[in-house]
Amino acid sequence: MSDCNHDCGSCSANCGSRTQEQTNFLEPLYRESSVKKVIGIVSGKGGVGKSMTTSLLAVAAMRKGLHTAILDGDVTGPSIPQAFGLHERLLGNAEGIIMPALTNFGIEVVSLNLMLEEETQPVIWRGPVVSDVVKQFWGKALWKDIDVMFVDMPPGTGEVPLTVFQSVPLDGIVVVATPQELVGMIVEKAVNMAKMMNIPVLGLIENMSYIKCPDCGKEIRVFGDSHIDEIAEKYQVPVLGKLPIDPKLTEACDNGLIENLENIYLDGVIDLLV
Ligand SMILES: Nc1ncnc2c1ncn2[C@@H]1O[C@H](COP(=O)(O)OP(=O)(O)OP(=O)(O)O)[C@@H](O)[C@H]1O
């Protein structure tokens, strides 16, 4: 590795220069939980549509008849409950195990926003506390017979997402980016981070790729030309989708109706992921 500091105790990469056994940071599941497949939704920075993509993928999986869950790991900016219109407070069982909330169509959700006294309360916690919360969402919740779980990962490639990468046994990740990010190195950093952790990159999704003129149907590339195919080729990963800026998506998210939306953009993707 080019940035190796030869301190294997502080690194999770399983590279050729490793001199110490790899430490296992994985958080165990609660004994009554079972999750067949765990997919992390990752972005190089915030606000690019990671939660939107997580929600759309979960809805698509649920519609395929899979028992689906969302672990909202974006602890400081949790937007999953809003997209599904969830507001009730989460309950714990006698052992203090979190019981996930159920959406109208049966997706199981755990999110910090369902635990706060006030949904508008800011979460101003330091990194280790944030990553600890995500670990607890994985290990201290009752995830019963889940076929596929989507983890809305904390944004970026810093300490918090790194700890989540190490604590939750991800089967793979999907990277979401806007066209601007695809010009820079942010996406490549996210892809490389996953590779260093030996986590397969299942594919890339370009969000806010274009806007369709409602009058003539022409696709306008507001943020410039797409570079997603070049990056996908460079890293040999598939492009799973290109989502336009669609006011119907914003409206559905804002009104908690994401499950009622016809999921035209990511419908076919589930067969490639699960
Ligand atoms: N393709 C799209 N068309 C229309 N609106 C979108 C689209 N993608 C995302 N949005 C809207 O943009 C906002 C940000 O999206 P989202 O919350 O999914 O981003 P995020 O990457 O999860 O951000 P953060 O990491 O800050 O939580 C939301 O209001 C969402 O409804």
Structural notes for this entry:
There is one protein chain. The chain has nine helices and twelve strands. Helix 3 packs parallel to helix 4. The mean pLDDT is 85. The radius of gyration is 18 Å and the shape is globular. The protein has 274 residues and is of the alpha/beta class. The longest helix is centred in the N-terminal third of the chain and has 14 residues. The strands form three sheets. The chain has an eight-stranded mixed beta sheet with strand order 5-6-2-7-1-8-9-12, sandwiched between helices. Strands 3-4 form a two-stranded antiparallel ribbon. A hairpin with a 5-residue loop joins strand 3 and strand 4. It has a single domain, classed as Rossmann fold (3-Layer(aba) Sandwich). 28% of the residues lie in helices and 18% in strands. Adenosine-5'-triphosphate (ATP) binds next to helix 1 and helix 8. It comes from Anaerostipes butyraticus. Binds and transfers iron-sulfur (Fe-S) clusters to target apoproteins. Can hydrolyze ATP. Belongs to the Mrp/NBP35 ATP-binding proteins family. This is Iron-sulfur cluster carrier protein. One of its GO terms (biological process) is iron-sulfur cluster assembly.
